[in-house]
Write a structure and sequence with these properties.
It catalyses: 2 D-alanine + ATP = D-alanyl-D-alanine + ADP + phosphate + H(+). Pathway: Cell wall biogenesis; peptidoglycan biosynthesis; Glycan biosynthesis. Cell wall formation. The protein has 3 domains: about 10-135, Rossmann fold (3-Layer(aba) Sandwich), CATH 3.40.50; about 145-160 and about 235-365, ATP-grasp fold, B domain (D-amino Acid Aminotransferase, Chain A, domain 1, 2-Layer Sandwich), CATH 3.30.470; about 165-230, ATP-grasp fold, A domain (Dna Ligase, domain 1), CATH 3.30.1490.20. The chain has 10 helices and 18 strands. It has helices at about 20-35, 120-130, 140-145, 145-155, 170-185, 210-220, 270-275, 290-305, 340-350, 355-365, and strands at about 10-15, 40-45, 55, 80-85, 90-95, 100-105, 105-110, 130-135, 165, 190-195, 205, 225-230, 235-245, 250-255, 255-260, 280-285, 310-320, 325-330. The protein has an 8-stranded mixed β-sheet, with helices on both faces. Strands 13, 14, 15, 16, 17 and 18 form a 6-stranded antiparallel β-sheet that branches. Strands 9-12-10-11 form a 4-stranded antiparallel β-sheet.
């Protein structure tokens, strides 16, 4: 519990060693700007691309897109560590200096995307340190980052997914011919993706089997495990935000959003997602029949429960002209940039950005540490 004599301390952790380092920084910049400083003591902690934890200063290092699309990164040099225990504290030190106590941490807001941050690794460290944190726990964070295990859990729960084939280095070496035959059965076009990367890094759209090997190699630049999926031809891309219910409250589903990708892009790639000059259409709320929209929202909550997610998630769907709905994936820490769909969907649902951040912190502070 936090002391009555001080404000709860929120450590916003961002950056990391994954390919999504810069996107994490941009998201964190928005979160840091939204937290109520009258209510919370806020500490920005960046994880560098080499894995060092440092005290970051957003006033000297703006965590936002720069001129010409320049991507930000963590640059702080005062190293930070968490001292685990009944009252976990932050320690900060300069090179050659005696470590200085920075204070007790009441909750961590891990604005982390991708492996070694969003995938349960950071969550496991925080569980061991006894620190509360925003968002999904260890297992659901790991499964939510791994598209293969995510789909297998959805299938086990009876939720609809697109046909797919998993390509690991070991199986490719042992059963390449059989895997190629399975991939051919998916039909064309195909999407080849790293199994554990986000922000559309490493994804290729394959329209000829002659392109398959190059697409697999591109995906392997980000992850040795690759997933090959059938394309959702003719489907609309629909997203829904889910928030954990407080107390006995049911989980909440947001207004839906639709992504209309500019014809210049073959799919919703990195530039379409994050660069403001790109002409991607984003409709919030999406123009869907109310009955169909209700089914999408219900499936979003079911997917949230199937992965046992806490806090928040963005659930992405393909909706076909005949009304068929397929779950694409769940993001357990969706983007929080100014262009990100999760905050925009909740704004359309009556929850503005500062209220959204406040709710997530409140949920995290109220939950137990350890097994729950």
């Amino acid at each position: 519990m936090t002391s009555q004599s001080r404000k709860p301390r929120v450590a916003v952790v961002f950056g990391g060693v994954s390919s999504e380092h810069s996107i994490s920084c941009i998201s964190a910049g928005s979160v840091l700007n939204a937290i109520d400083r009258e209510k919370y003591d806020v500490v920005p902690i960046g994880i560098s691309t080499t894995g060092s934890w440092v005290l970051e200063d957003p006033t000297t290092n703006p965590l936002e897109l720069g001129e010409g699309g320049r991507l930000p990164s963590v640059v702080g040099d005062r190293e930070v560590s968490i001292s685990p225990g009944e009252t976990s504290a932050l320690m900060v030190s300069d090179s050659g200096a005696v470590p200085e106590m920075l204070g007790v941490v009441d909750v961590v807001f891990p604005v982390m995307h991708g492996p070694f941050g969003q995938d349960g690794t950071l969550q496991g460290l925080l569980e061991m340190a006894g620190v509360r944190y925003v968002g999904a726990g260890v297992l659901s964070s790991a499964v939510g980052t791994d598209k293969v295990f995510m789909k297998r859990l959805f299938e086990a729960a009876g939720l609809p997914v697109l046909p797919y084939v998993v390509v690991t280095p070991r199986e490719w070496a042992r059963e390449e011919k059989a895997l190629r035959e399975q991939i051919v059965e998916l039909g064309l076009p195909l999407f080849v993706k790293p199994a554990r990367a986000g922000s559309s890094f490493g994804i290729s759209r394959v329209t000829s089997l002659d392109e398959l090997d190059a697409a697999i190699e591109e995906a392997r630049r980000f992850d040795p495990k690759v997933i090959v999926e059938a394309a959702a031809m003719g489907a609309r891309e629909i997203e829904c935000g889910v928030l954990q219910g407080e107390g006995s409250e049911d989980h909440l589903a947001s207004e839906l959003a639709e992504i209309r990708v500019d014809p210049l892009h073959q799919f919703y790639d990195f530039e379409a997602k994050y660069l403001p000059e790109e002409n991607t259409g984003l409709d919030v709320p999406a123009d869907l029949d109310p009955e169909l929209a209700g089914r999408v929202k219900a499936l979003a909550v079911q997917a949230f429960d199937a992965l046992d997610v806490e806090g928040l998630a963005r659930v992405d769907f393909f909706v076909f002209p005949d009304g068929r709905i397929v779950i694409n994936e769940v993001e357990t820490m969706p983007g929080f940039t100014s262009l990100s769909m999760f905050p925009r969907m909740w704004a359309a649902s009556g929850v503005d950005y500062p209220d959204l951040v406040e709710r997530l912190i409140r949920i995290a502070l109220a939950r137990d540490v350890g097994l729950r």
